[in-house]
């Protein structure tokens, strides 16, 4: 199980041989500047993106009315993104180079530490999109 607290109230309403997944996406706007690139690379210049963050929560069981977890539980991530990432210079927000890959890992770890999930549910992946055509994902199998 991931997270500091369990939202595991209510009866288990389904357990199958397969796995259930839910997805929720969030958006924020931010600037960044990437180091470690060849001289003249466009991403070494200050620029911005309209980021999309997609979270995947997985579980072998459903609880309550038939939820992996209530989508509303994931709004904690929206508040975190609004408060800490939106309209910020990402180089000042994270301790790593703010590539999509690194942002996916940072946000995965945040979700695993902060989202309250029912027993058996876990953060499986976080995907960060800089554009509709380019994205990165950090994924971890059932811990
Ligand atoms: N593996 C990664 N490659 C790149 C990343 C990254 O996070 N991971 N990031 C960048 C830059 O942030 C850049 O702004 C985005 O790159 P790119 O998609 O190539 O740029 P455009 O949106 O302008 O797309 P075009 O196809 O060139 O129009 C670079 N690489
Ligand atoms: Zn960029």
Automatic annotation (TrEMBL):
<keyword id="KW-0671">Queuosine biosynthesis</keyword>
<dbReference type="Pfam" id="PF01242">
    <property type="entry name" value="PTPS"/>
</dbReference>
<feature type="binding site">
    <location>
        <position position="32"/>
    </location>
    <ligand>
        <name>Zn(2+)</name>
    </ligand>
</feature>
<feature type="active site" description="Charge relay system">
    <location>
        <position position="130"/>
    </location>
</feature>
<dbReference type="InterPro" id="IPR038418">
    <property type="entry name" value="6-PTP_synth/QueD_sf"/>
</dbReference>
<feature type="binding site">
    <location>
        <position position="49"/>
    </location>
    <ligand>
        <name>Zn(2+)</name>
    </ligand>
</feature>
<dbReference type="GO" id="GO:0046872">
    <property type="term" value="F:metal ion binding"/>
</dbReference>
<feature type="active site" description="Proton acceptor">
    <location>
        <position position="43"/>
    </location>
</feature>
<feature type="active site" description="Charge relay system">
    <location>
        <position position="87"/>
    </location>
</feature>
<dbReference type="InterPro" id="IPR007115">
    <property type="entry name" value="6-PTP_synth/QueD"/>
</dbReference>
<comment type="similarity">
    <text>Belongs to the PTPS family. QueD subfamily.</text>
</comment>
<keyword id="KW-0479">Metal-binding</keyword>
<keyword id="KW-0456">Lyase</keyword>
<feature type="binding site">
    <location>
        <position position="47"/>
    </location>
    <ligand>
        <name>Zn(2+)</name>
    </ligand>
</feature>
<dbReference type="GO" id="GO:0008616">
    <property type="term" value="P:tRNA queuosine(34) biosynthetic process"/>
</dbReference>
<comment type="pathway">
    <text>Purine metabolism; 7-cyano-7-deazaguanine biosynthesis.</text>
</comment>
<protein>
    <recommendedName>
        <fullName>6-carboxy-5,6,7,8-tetrahydropterin synthase</fullName>
        <ecNumber>4.-.-.-</ecNumber>
    </recommendedName>
</protein>
<dbReference type="GO" id="GO:0070497">
    <property type="term" value="F:6-carboxytetrahydropterin synthase activity"/>
</dbReference>
<keyword id="KW-0862">Zinc</keyword>
